[in-house]
Known about the structure:
The chain is mostly helical. The protein has helices at residues 3-37, 40-71, 75-108, 119-140, 143-151, 153-173, 178-210.
Amino acid sequence: MPRTSFDISISQLKVNLLDYGARVERVIGESMESLKTRDRALAEAIIQNDALLNETRYELEDQCYTLLATQSPMAHDLRDIISILMVAIELERIADHAKNIAEITIYMGNEPLLKPLIDLPRMAELCQLMLTRALDSFAKQDADEAKAVAAMDDEIDNLYKQVFRELMSYIVEDPRTVTRAMNLLFAGHNLERIGDCITNIAERVVYAVTGRLEELNVQRQI
């Protein structure tokens, strides 16, 4: 493949990846909306659409493998392709976590929420903002912005700790609330994991730009 065609192929891969990321970002918000409003139809649509998101990930992955196998890229080109591959995998994981929240919505049925949702929607909003900024840092090849995105995960972790403590207090006061509390706790856990996935994306941006593999926000585990 001539150099110009090769460059075009990588550029198109990046465009496709960013489009995929925008779709995944929307699903995060939709999954939380389904939980807040108990919208079963929206939750079912999210679950059905997950197969399309999986398909897109595999298409991106296949395109990366093809370039790796046929072009023997070196240096920055190699880092770009590997990073696209790894970011696509993380995006699919994020979509899976969002699907899990939709499945919680369906599992809950008509059961009333244990409490008004405040911290969980805030976690979802932060996840969406983190992902948008992470993808923007990838598009602009901005390692400093990627590191700033990873630092945002601390706020998501802190919110999850707060949700955990509050829900545990409900269970201690009234063991009959355990099922409703655990449903919300599982939703929070999925959002916390989304934050970790986005941190992984930020790490891949740093690698693509600098060639260094760095573990960002190493205190994020709770």
